[in-house]
Amino acid sequence: MRVLLTTESYLPYLSGVTVSVDALARGLGALGHDVLVLAPRPAPGSAPEPVGTPGPEPGYAWLPSYQAPIVAPPGYRMAVPVPGSGGLRRARAFRPDVVHAHSPFVTGRVARRLAAELSAPLVFTHHTRFADYGHYLGPFAGLGSRLADAYIRRFWRACAAIVAPSEDLARDIRARLPVASAHRVHVIPTGVDVAGIRALAPIDPRVEAGWPGDALVVASLGRLAPEKSPELLLAAVAAAAAHMPMLRLLVIGAGPSQATLRTRAELPDLAGRVHLVGALPRPEALTRLAGSDLFLFTSRTETQGLVLAEALSARLPVVAVDGPGVDESVRDGVDGIVVDAMPPDSLPRRLADGLIALADPVRRGAMAEHAAADADRFAVERRVAQAEDLYDTLRRA
User: Does the 2-191+379-396 domain belong in CATH 3.40.640.10?
Assistant: First the structure.
């Protein structure tokens, strides 16, 4: 098959969406399909960098782009679908059998237009709960969320299939669609390179941070922004550290909350216990994850929580706030502890209790073994095969 993937967010900018698109593109290529990625052109002097997913590099059709405004992360490029641009000409000449959009906005509109023009089925993966990002619009948050919701519902109507990375999100989407259209929603989580993660040579974060060799290291990996609730990481570790003097927190990632977190980490109850390393290339981030003991997850705005699959594949038991898709990755009491998000006032204390419970090396080791034994359920090869089956079904329809 010839498969066109369109995306608003792509490498070298690193996010869950970019990792997902790269994994799908390379996985389809490994199965013998011809893949073209239509995305914003990287900034001058930069190019897509490998993030560790196996498979051949796809072809690229670049759209003109510019650095997004201050509200967007550094390095995030905005696509401009200039009529007649080289990227659009190449995508049209590619004549895809399937068009798979990974954003409903600028590149999603391009995907919809190309699919209609070329009589190809349009697939859309709903990666983001857009309403959770309304705070970036300030006083216009309410209006912006309503307009985005109305727009996305219209976009769904043009799709032959809508892919949700979790069953939680799939239920939400089905509830907002006419009953007759609910069958178009399919659950296909993003897979990870389980074998590659297992083969990583761990880097001990204790050495880099100057921590004692017997420190119990809790890791976090992700964007540091309000919608991810990163302040909960520090609050939980501060509460647990009062009972666990050897507890340490490794924070991998960057974002608008980074400076506030750094200031909080300097207060007496956390001083010397938190190491914020900033953003790292994905392979380097995963090696530090593999060298840690536990994983702490506090975001409640995910559609899947890809880092949960990565952490479990690296044999790390997880302590996580219950949220969309969490219980589809973390099995409470088996390979992690899932903490109810309500009531919010006691959440840091209850997360701390989870960390304290897993200080027991026997319990922690048992959960690590369960995580390792069952990690193949996250394998990228399985997820790409599901996408391939969906494409085949749509083409035969």
Answer: no
